[in-house]
Predict the structure.
Amino acid sequence: MIGLATIAFAVLAGVAVLTAVAALLVRELVHTILWIALFFVDLSAIYFLLEAPFLGVLQLGVYAGAVTVLLLFGIMVTRKRIFSREAATGLGPAPVALALLTFVFVVAAVGELPSGPSALQVYAPSDLSAALFGTYGPWVLILGIIMLTSVSGAIYLVREGRE
Amino acid sequence: MTGLPEAGFVGLSAALVAVGLFGILTRRNFVLLLIAIEIAMNAAILNFVYFAAFAPTPGEGLAGQAAAVVLVGFAATEVAVGLAIVLALNRAKGTINVAEATELRL
Amino acid sequence: MVLGLLIGIGEGFSPGRTTNVQILWLHLPPSAQFPNGFSLVMGTLVDPLSALVLMVVTVVGFLVLLYSIGYMHQDRGLARYYAELSLFLASMSALVVANNLLEFFLFWELVGVCSYFLIGFYYEKPSAASAAKEAFLVTRVGDVMFLLGIFLYFYLYAAAGPAGLGGWAANGFVFVHNGQPFLAGATSSSTLATVAGLMILGGAAGKSAQFPLHVWLPDAMEGPTTVSALIHAATMVAAGVYLLAVTSVFLGFTSFDQLVIVAIGGFTAFFAATMAVVHPDIKRVIAYSTISQLGYMVLAVGAGFTAVGLYHLFTHAFFKALLFLAAGSVIHAVGTQDLFKMGGLRRSMRLTSVAFAVGGLALAGIPPFAGFWSKDDILASVYSQLGAHPLYWPFFLLAFAAVFLTAYYIFRAWFLAFSGSGPRDPSLPHAHEGPWTMQVPLVVLSVLAAGAGMFAFLPGFANLLERGPGIPPHFGTTEILLSGASLALAVGGIALAWALWGNGRVYALPASSPAQAVRRLLLERYYFKAAYDWIGARGVNTVARAADFFDVYVIDGVVHGFEGAFGGLSDRLRRIQSGVVSDYASYLVAGLIGVFALLLLIAPFLLARVGGG
């Protein structure tokens, strides 16, 4: 019997793949941003489906919000070429074959994993935050350090008066 | 509330990785390259969330979700650095076509 | 220099004191061979032995540096010259005060390489370059033997030493501990110890140009005369003698070793003197004389009279440096080294002629000049040991005979250069003395060459010489007779030189007489160089030819084959380096897929085949 959740997942999965492909293939860069935003929102829905509300919100905020705006910003700053799809290379057989092979092998590899889904676990966001700032505190610290250095690096890269 | 197919999730993330790879390999525009990378990255995050939801113990599930949160942070950082590179490349060469940045060639 | 002198004087007035400072350089944990570990230390050891030589090195070194200012002022590459000379002086001083065998060897090699640099100072000149190479290679033979000797000593004595200290290896192979030789009482007289001693002798012979490794020193005269004075007369070549002295004091030689050392020293003293008799080149005459005098020192050390040998080292350093610097002054003035072109320089270069004469008198052993005291000490010492072994006799006689030859050849050189009415070759420039920087060292060294022999009577200095068997009494009947005999020989030599060459006479041997054949033999250095060349040319060449054939057709064939294959391959692979990031990413993914394929397809297949499941 096919449950409602399954149907919902099938739809969302289809949309995810389609939007991802569309984002890469459409001719206008601005359309790409629209498609990728849709992709992010779609994934967020999948997270809600998996009873991970905190991650769903995070996905919406960070990806659908911040990253999308950043990408849009990047396109606008390089305004000269904004509406052209420069050097959109044709679909060579090799990249497609490589991507397909990866897909096949990843799926094949999963067959090797010991698994057997039990009941869906539900975690309250408060549990997650307790874990994040308790057990996994070092991860967050490391993430903070990496973000700091990355932002410094980014500022260094784009600062005026280089060269 | 069960019935979510394992094969479906794994297949979805595998498909997203494949799409991302395809983009990385074929697109020459740096912004598109970044987007493709984000797609592949999201596939990984999806995996974490999925396996966290079906983890045998709550501890492991929380570990998976925590990893997902950290990964989202990494991905955002990476976009920021990537865009900085886009700007620098644009300023240096007047283009964001990665095929024209061939200084690595011998 | 001041420091060196102070150390010397300080040592002299506090008899027997040794100062030993060291730091641990490296300590290896205990192993099967070295149950107490293995240490390397760097340290300084100042004892009477090293203080004596240190004074020589610093004083002569300073004077030569001073002299160089005048002598070298026209040369290019002065910075290089002073850098190399300073490196040499530093290494030599460190060699002298080294407190363990490994450190000694380290600085031994350093002075060797400095010698190589400085012989080849005029590297544009092919003869200088090849002389440098020759010196390096010949001393290398000795150095390899020295190294083997060190290995043998390590092997023999790694565990020996005073109780409670964990053995020689654990203490960094130091020479002394609490003022006593570290290996006191531990040295053996086994065959292996004899071989080790012979190896050390080989090293010393290489450095001190003793027979049969003597060939490099005359050719080393291609270097600047200052270098000849400092390195190839006073200090570095004496390092070989110093090595023998150190070894005999701290490690001990077996009696067979001593016999061989005496044999080589005595033979070399005579052998080198004969070659000096006929040579026309002023510097080479002095070079042969150096070899001969080093032979005396080796003889004394071999007979067990370390202090006497070093005493001669001390006096010899001064008068030989003086002779070289005086010769350098002459060369500087007339621009040639050929004795037969010079003549009459006494008038224009009075100071130099006197200095050379003082050096010559000291070398010949005329009292009261320095050489007399030390050389007669050697002869008397060896004479007193003649009972030890019947084979000492012939070598003692050879050394005795060399006294005559020494006096003859050095005054032949003096008469040829300085006496007579004027130069034989009229094309020579008008000679004149060098600047004051060249004259001062000559004066100082003249005083030292004249007086250094009597230092032995100073109370402090005598203390320096106390190590090892002391100086035999000067005033026994036998010794006086011996001294008288050698003095007579020396005076005879000078008289013969005067008779043949005095007042600008040139004595020509009758053509086609047997004497001509002898002269030719001596000029060709007993054909030793020719023989070595022949060995090099024929023996080595044959091997080299075979190796070359193998190299060209087998090794190169393989190499070229590989090269061709990889060249073609890389030519194709080069195109991969497009510089386009996407392409690189493709290779990355292809590799990833390869890994997947390996894990998922090939590995299970293989496992199934081997039945591992």
